[in-house]
Amino acid sequence: xxxxxxxxxxxxxxxxxxxxxxxxxxxxxxxxxxxxxxxxxxxxxxxxxxxxxxxxxxxxxxxxxxxxxxxxxxxxxxxxxxxxxxxxxxxxxxxxxxxxxxxxxxxxxxxxxxxxxxxxxxxxxxxxxxxxxxxxxxxxxxxxxxxxxxxxxxxxxxxxxxxxxxxxxxxxxxxxxxxxxxxxxxxxxxxxxxxxxxxxxxxxxxxxxxxxxxxxxxxxxxxxxxxxxxxxxxxxxxxxxxxxxxxxxxxxxxxxxxxxxxxxxxxxxxxxxxxxxxxxxxxxxxxxxxxxxxxxxxxxxxxxxxxxxxxxxxxxxxxxxxxxxxxxxxxxxxxxxxxxxxxxxxxxxxxxxxxxxxxxxxxxxxxxxxxxxxxxxxxxxxxxxxxxxxxxxxxxxxxxxxxxxxxxxxxxxxxxxxxxxxxxxxxxxxxxxxxxxxxxxxxxxxxxxxxxxxxxxxxxxxxxxxxxxxxxxxxxxxxxxxxxxxxxxxxxxxxxxxxxxxxxxxxxxxxxxxxxxxxxxxxxxxxxxxxxxxxxxxxxxxxxxxxxxxxxxxxxxxxxxxxxxxxxxxxxxxxxxxxxxxxxxxxxxxxxxxxxxxxxxxxxxxxxxxxxxxxxxxxxxxxxxxxxxxxxxxxxxxxxxxxxxxxxxxxxxxxxxxxxxxxxxxxxxxxxxxxxxxxxxxxxxxxxxxxxxxxxxxxxxxxxxxxxxxxxxxxxxxxxxxxxxxxxxxxxxxxxxxxxxxxxxxxxxxxxxxxxxxxxxxxxxxxxxxxxxxxxxxxxxxxxxxxxxxxxxxxxxxxxxxxxxxxxxxxxxxxxxxxxxxxxxxxxxxxxxxxxxxxxxxxxxxxxxxxxxxxxxxxxxxxx
Length: 864
Prior knowledge:
This protein is α/β, with parallel strands linked by helices. The chain has a four-stranded mixed sheet with strand order 11-12-14-13, covered by helices on one side. Its EC number is 2.3.2.26. Residues 339-401 are annotated as: Disordered.
């Protein structure tokens, strides 16, 4: 209808009404709860002015023909209908309204609109110069609403108030809503599968439906989950990348609702897991995987959409930091290539040099291609695709492996997980612990690698945000074992056909009194020149000692070498007394490049061979290993005293204190850092820094530069070879795509939380012992009475490490075996099997004495 006709109709209903004393329109004079004083409209000019105002603000929304046709919902008419239903004690009117709205895409999408936006119904044709809709198309297009912007016609606040009001009468409407939604979802699914999909997704009101439905608590109701919720989440898989991306961007702006949405999905996934457990024998080799359960794909897929919204709604690194990290990634990649090239050039013949030059050219091309690909992706102005993980030039397999984690939606949004300090919600909120307990990661891995490229199907492997740290580690261990098997397989066939025997294992032989020197030689010459050696299973031999390494010798090797190389006497690291963690010595000698490389390789090898190291670095170290740069926030855990001082500097209020920053702090842009010897090393944060005072105007710059100096620039020469060594081992694995920095820390150092009750509850017994044997009861009584330090020594004695693996001590599966009758011999341990050999001592006092002697003298003794 024309604008003039619209004003005329409003004028008529304001002055004379519609004549229906049951009218539900509060903007109609016939309504018993008319919004205005009727006397005010005795003056036609007042009525005309208000009619013009209503037509401008609401279009045709409050015309009687729409309000009384029950085609859409608004807060006012909903309240009117509820009041009327309560008055006559008959809920038929409300039920009919609910069904007519929630069963029809056009009606629901036209509900709860903002002022100035038209409804998507066939009666509405010419109400806006910027919008158009016809009865033929059933789609409304508005130039203000596109898939490329974040504009919406939905009034979110009105919608949430209205849904909350409706839920007060849940008993009266729940069955109607359930039936209506079934019809609605079929309608939308059919339209999305038709030739009208593009028109539908570009409908100005279409996306409103998803936010309205998500607001309904029914999505978490067990009676709705397997039908209604499943049908709703299935629709998301049919949506284009463009509209999924818009949904994510809009949700990120309305992130207060995110926790509610996530709770819906987690309840859905939990219920489907329970259903799967009910019809699947988990221990069966032929049982269906949890990932094949109907509805699981849909739930995890939508959860990933919410996860992306959580990232966008969280705290992203600054554009300056992201740019620095991108440049660092490229520089480190080139440095890795150059380092290997220098080693390969030594003693290589001419043919090998030609081949290496060709490899270097291919590597450079890979970098350029990755950069070009980054530039080709439509992103935000500060978006740069991270190249740190994906620059794999020694093998094409890793590029393929990396690409499985990059989906088109993530690329469309310009998202990279490690570009965010944190999400709006904790990342753990997106991990369903119950489902993760039921995931059989080894079977999932086999199913995943057996997929045909042309017929891929859902796998949890492709959704790392959903996997628990325990399952990620299990997956990484499987991947590592597969790599080791491939290396053994390659060695076998090479020996078979060439006649030259290649060792299927990465063996190193070291002397206890020359541990670091021997380890450097073995790792440098076998590892750096032949990096494929690092993918083999590690076997350690101590010169002059008998024993076959089944895990225990490797654990002891790592333990001994870390104790030596991290000791203060070596001067490579310094210990912080406050945090009891290690950090690089900024004044370390210049000739320790090889040693830092060795330590990086040891960290990588420990992860690759599932060995926990007895070291403690601050969390920022693991962020840096993942391609991040240290920033002010990292100082809270690495340098807490300095962090508190800088935070005080930033929050200092000159007006309140009645003095200036310069007078109180007396700081300049020249600072000193204490090295491992206790000496102060001076640095200028800016040129001529000693003459530049820190003021209220430049204090933020000072904090940024000082943090950068402490965590990055002052230790750059030490960190680069360290990172290089780590990358030599891990760069061809999925480590950086699967794990967050805090999870890498757990991988390397394990958990310091030790619950020995867990150890006792999961222990197994052999050789005649049972949990009720007197010696076993005495043993646990003795162990539980130990100090924390003594308990850690026992743990190191039996397992080779005093840390707990991910999941706690219960995962160690300690095996306690009877080692003969009463004797004066000490207990021993097979650390590779977590086996503790305990003689059947005659008394608890004797058991305590022998056990203490054993654990206090464990190095080089009792470790088999």
